[in-house]
Amino acid sequence: xxxxxxxxxxxxxxxxxxxxxxxxxxxxxxxxxxxxxxxxxxxxxxxxxxxxxxxxxxxxxxxxxxxxxxxxxxxxxxxxxxxxxxxxxxxxxxxxxxxxxxxxxxxxxxxxxxxxxxxxxxxxxxxxxxxxxxxxxxxxxxxxxxxxxxxxxxxxxxxxxxxxxxxxxxxxxxxxxxxxxxxxxxxxxxxxxxxxxxxxxxxxxxxxxxxxxxxxxxxxxxxxxxxxxxxxxxxxxxxxxx
Amino acid sequence: xxxxxxxxxxxxxxxxxxxxxxxxxxxxxxxxxxxxxxxxxxxxxxxxxxxxxxxxxxxxxxxxxxxxxxxxxxxxxxxxxxxxxxxxxxxxxxxxxxxxxxxxxxxxxxxxxxxxxxxxxxxxxxxxxxxxxxxxxxxxxxxxxxxxxxxxxxxxxxxxxxxxxxxxxxx
Lengths: 242, 171
Known about the structure:
The complex is a heterodimer.
Chain A: H1 5-16, H2 38-54, E1 107-109, E2 113-120, E3 123-134, E4 139-142, E5 146-150, E6 157-160, E7 162-163, E8 168-171, E9 176-186, E10 203-212, E11 217-229, E12 236-241
Chain B: E1 2-4, H1 7-34, H2 37-53, H3 65-86, H4 98-111, H5 116-126, H6 132-139, H7 143-158
Helix pairs in contact in B: 1-2, 1-3, 1-5, 2-3, 5-6, 5-7, 6-7
């Protein structure tokens, strides 16, 4: 009924609730910042052995998804670009660096390009592209879920990253590609209806990134300064283009 | 270059896409159900954490929104029960900016006289374009009950002129 009081309220609802009020990123359970060291490594190795002994990660009877799931559940389909999985299940978010078989020595890096900046109210994004060429033998490049970031001084610091898309790439001799990094940080502006997200393990003034590979790390000079990098939730994404 | 993908990659991608596509819908549904802006934000966050928790059990080839809405409603109901037990006050509506907050408070005052069923039935059908059957499925009720709720909601809102300021023309 156009013009009615109810319709006015419905229109007002439509207008008010269209105001953005949710975080830009999907929530993930908070995790502790990546730790390195003998103790942490031993703990991770122990957990990995336990997972391998158990085979697939099984779910307890109480966590079948039923309480929240009126929808029938079936195994997740894998939309794979190739029929085989070349990365074992262990190469997942909490893996330590060093998976795959490509060494830093065989991947020759060109100069990184600072591709773009994108600013919105409350946040800024920056994309960096690091071209590489495989000058060694065929190898498997696996993107870890942690990288190292460095300021103008001081040792590189491990942080979590979000691997976008695939996390493993088979490189033939002479293959070229690029590692694409995207960082997002808060500018401190107020977004209507939105609260700043958490940022654990904040590192300010990041100028370079080291990407761990099977042997060694790939050093990427950003050519700019990332105002802030969060370890949890990850504020940097990584992927590979070819 | 040969490229492969892991199960975790695909699930993470589906999860991110589900957030981009449906989080506003989940939020508005929860706003209608709870009539509380900050609670709707919190519960949207919680619903997606549940989705992440169950990500390996979900059939991502099926529509994910019904799962999210049902989970969201159950989370909201659990929160209401917990709050009643503790007699805790609602959080203030601090998470929206001032202009939105003022408009929302007026709107909320109008909608507080409706039941959660009436609010959801009215807003989801009139604004979001859902069918009565879709709303009924989400709320575990009948389409007839939804249509009746819409009718009741409209009748209640028509008598608000006496005390509610008419919506300002902000648009």
